[in-house]
Amino acid sequence: MPTRIAVEDAIMLKVGIAGLGFMGKSHLEIYQAMGDKARVTAIAEPDPKKRAGDMSSVVGNIDSGKAGPSFAGIAMYESLDKMLAESDIDVVDITLPTFMHRDATVKAFAAGRHVICEKPMALEHGEATDMVDASEKAGRRLFVGQCVRFWPAYVKARDLALSGDFGSTRTASFSRLSAIPGWVWENWSLNPALSGGAALDLHIHDTDFIVYLYGRPLGVTSFTGGRKGLNGPVDHISTCYHYGDDMLVTAVGAWEYPSGYPFSMTFSIHMEKGTLHLAADGKLSLYRDGKDPEDIPVKAGDGWTEELHHFIDCIAGGTDSKVLSARDAAYSVWLVRREMESARAGARMDARL
Predict the structure, then answer these.
(1) Most buried residue, 33, 84, 131, 263, by CB count within 10 Å?
(2) Domain 7-147+306-323 belongs in CATH node 3.60.15.10
(3) CB–CB of 288/276 below 8 Å?
């Protein structure tokens, strides 16, 4: 293992990206716009075309809006093992398929690196716990990319909902809809054994944000549908999060729609003195009785950029995140699995871990 330089003494953090799919490409573009804060110096990717700079096969459900990454000055490795052994990176950014997250994270910690891992953290809560344990044993930090906690419109809505200016929440509904993700490497996301299906891969964004906004629920009641019914792939999930009799919180996530169907993420948060609504076009509005609708200004940008800046700042400063801990992310994995259990059992499930 190469000699490690204390992150606190480093001028710039050196990042190695594991996996050069849509999220790996997006993360690379963000790091390359950070200036002196962090620099990608290594990439581990088994596909020789991608290692050669051919990203024509990489697509996703949201346009990153970036011009495209540069590969100048980046060492390319065909495996994570070689990158860990031969590069002097400080941080491993894991953008591999979900079923690879646990093993890749444990390897990175064993090699003395900090880890930023894409969501969902892992397929199962036990795997997520293994990742947290490895982080603590190595004395290195683990951050998970639950990007909606950082998405500007959601951040603004949470601030307003918790401000007390509009009273308590009466109802809140969240929606995340997509075409079937047939664009990913070898269609791994369509295999629930590898991705967890739409519930764990897509819907977890809203599950995690609901917990961030309202805390851990008392229980969940869910219904699912999919290509092969309840016991097959989950392409559509609808959940009620139980917080007591005074508040109704629901979320739906689905990727069952034909190619070309527009991706959307929306919500309506109805409070005693106003309703916040995020439209499919990203516009955040406030509605109050007797007043014209108000456009709520939202910081430009996306949650991926905000989260990576935050995580890098935490690593450089030797601090934990006040937005999302690794154990928070592990709980969200557990909670989505409880939602799926609820749907299979046709009953409410306790959500207290």
Answers:
(1) 131
(2) no
(3) no
Sheet holding 114-118: strands in order across?
Answer: 75-77, 38-44, 13-18, 91-94, 114-118, 142-145
Q: Which phi-psi region, left, alpha or beta, contains residue 112 (left: φ > 0; alpha: ψ -120 to 50)?
A: left
Looking at the structure, give the CATH architecture of the domain made up of residues 149-301+333-350.
Answer: 2-Layer Sandwich (3.30)
Where are the domains positioned within the chain? Answer: 7-147+306-323, 149-301+333-350
Tokens of 233: 């792939």
Say if pTM beats, i.e. exceeds, 0.90: yes
